[in-house]
Amino acid sequence: MAETLKLQTSRFGELSVDPTTLIRMALPMLGFESQTRFVLIQHKPDSPFLWLQSADDPDLAFILTQPQWFSMAYSITIPDAAVDALEITCAEDVEIYTLVTIPDDTPERMTTNLLGPVVINKHNRKAAQIVLSDSAFGTKTPLLQPAKIGSEPATGTLQWLSQSAEPAAAV
Amino acid sequence: MLVLSRKRGQKILIGDNISLVVLEVYPDGVKLGIDAPKSVPVYREELLAEMIQSNRQAASPRKLPELTQKPLQQPVVT
User: Which pTM does this prediction carry?
Assistant: First the structure.
């Protein structure tokens, strides 16, 4: 077995990572071309969010989700360049994630970028951010229903996100 | 910057395997056809700029709200 990799991160402290589980960007995150190695981390059990933590920049992390976890219909065609770069042989090879943007002051207005999903070949851990050039998808699609935003008092708990009896805790 | 004049139907060749052809000409625009290898990404400039801006805004968020609403399907993480 390969040696465990020790990574320093600002959010998760020191991570011990099996190098074979690293996500390697075959086609880069646009604007972050120098970042080629990431670690995929489940946010919490039952959370619809995952962290894509850079293995080389302790501060850099993205939040990923899958649109269908928010009841969005989302189907895409992976461009040939990504199929080749990720060595995709069939649809079952891939997992499709989208990046989530969370405004600091109004986290309930989080959006996701359906235009530029991150495709991961789960077998070889190669990943690519692709751009669906001729699709109708945008880069700022609200994840939460607008009707629920603003119906809460400004105190800022995120209870309205919850369908369970217990109020959700604000972070 | 190289500036070339082309008429409708005429091509420009870039390197060995990229070609641009002027398909249509409008008063304030043109329609281009692009032949390039699959490995060469071709983007509208403004689309690429929007993607980069979106990625920068998404990077390294300070807050992540807790969602207790369960996803419809468990995330598969290995």
Answer: 0.80
